[in-house]
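Hey, can you fold this one?
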Amino acid sequence: MRVMRGVIVLVVLATIAWCGYWFVGTRALDRAIAQGLERTPELSAETYHIRGFPNRFDVTFDEPRVTLSDSEWTAPFVQFFALSYKPHHLLAVFPHDQVLRLGGTEMLIHSEDLRASMVMEPGLDLPLDRVTLVGEAVDLQITQPAIGPDYAATWQLGALRLASRRIDATTHQLVALAETVFPDPAQMDRLDPQRLWPRRFDVLRLDAEAQTDRPLDRHLVMDGAQARLTDLAFTGLRIAWPDVDLRLAGRLSPDADGRLSGEVTATVTGWEELIDILRASGLIGDEAAAMANTTLSAMAQEDDLEVPLAVTEGVVRLGPFALVTLPPLALSR
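Sure. Predicted structure:
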């Protein structure tokens, strides 16, 4: 009986200690959130509350708003969850509807499900290690008043994946993946009245690496510190639809004017179909198309092709031949 009584006492004491840890942690978290909102004017919320006793810290922000330069994100709410014994791993759940404004473009984001996972390295500074955002049945309703008061376009995405992984203290690998993508039909008809390009894309993927001038850690939120983008490189691209699968792997970096330079290897399934589309849409001339067909036929293995390409100030070259000029990117650093 004495042993049993001792076990019961230990369990009760452990429970009291665990509950006390949660209340202490909640008070510390409340102070940290209040301090972060006060020191970071770019972040705001109407109210917030903390729940989850005794095993989780659940934080709900009502009417959150993030404002950065000429960009703004708003939503009815956003929820963050963390196990009380693993506070450096956050899960976020977003509402079905959100609004994102980028310059003169407004985007209403509707999703059946949209959630994220963020893992930070344990420690005093909590540097960001990796982030994953997953969305299902995502609709993007885009309006641009600068083009016209009635201009609107809706893109439908069957699935959306955004991810970031830390490579070193200030460099992160980025991936954006969209599957089963239906661009706005009216917009596609205006841009492509001949219907040369597909109205459905199976895969759209972009890989990149970004470097900042300081680590992405808790000081950005809690102390109002700023991180500036110092380098950006595109390392992969995939565009796939039923007849064509285009993959690019290499490294392309934009200059101050947004013009890309670097070297990539292009792997293409259905390359002849792609060249026909590029020629018919006027992106490459008849002479370049004929040269490409002649040159690439000797390099292709049946319907698959792997070819090295050089890009100099936006001009894509196959050996000495210029194929196409890429438009400059509008980047803000």
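Residues 2-39 form the longest helix (38 residues). Let me know if you want another pass with a different chain boundary.
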